[in-house]
Amino acid sequence: MPGADYQLTKLLGLSPSVKRFMMYQQGCFGGGAVLRLAKDLTENNKGARVLVVCAEITVVTFHGPSDTDLDVLVGQVLFGDGAAAVIIGSDPILEVEKPLFELVSATQTLISDTRYAVYVLIGTLIFWVVHAGGRAILDQVELKLGLEPEKLRATRHVLSEYGNVASACVLFVLDEMRKYSIKEWYLPSIRSFHLSSKSPTPALSCRIIAPDPD
Known about the structure:
Strand content: 15-25%
Helix content: 25-40%
CATH superfamily: Thiolase/Chalcone synthase
Radius of gyration: 18 Å
Number of helices: 6
Number of domains: 1
Low-confidence stretches: 118-124, 187-201, 210-214
CATH class: Alpha Beta
CATH architecture: 3-Layer(aba) Sandwich
Mean pLDDT: 78
Largest sheet: 4 strands, mixed
């Protein structure tokens, strides 16, 4: 059955034979997972360019207000509709392409008996790209990892402006990082991770190549 990928192919005027891969029902960790997949595809197919599109429409889960069960309002308050796209490739053609980020590594390792634990190497990172799952989650990440408030500035901004846009969150936050880097001339390393006890998700390490006001 034709889906959103078919409609997007038509809108962009792409070849009907262009390779497409849909990832449904991935939830909040979908953004990190699809970036890892795109990295693998481009590194193993010389000259390939992968268009990554994350789209979330949470209105389909809407429940009317209830006088006896206020929990149904949580989803409407926290989550938001959003879509974002990015092109991933390797060996950029610098005459015609302007790379913004370098995706250095993407790891996904299972460690036994740690499904409720999160371990990350803090290192000397200037900014963190964290899934904007909610204010309480970000507060705990900041507290448990001993981060300065500035480290999560981009993530908190996305949460306050757009809410939790699930799989698109990581792309929203990366775009905020790009804007901050242009404004403040930072060249940060960024580690991205998503807290989830339901599914193992990749840890992504990337860095901004160079701020470009254009």
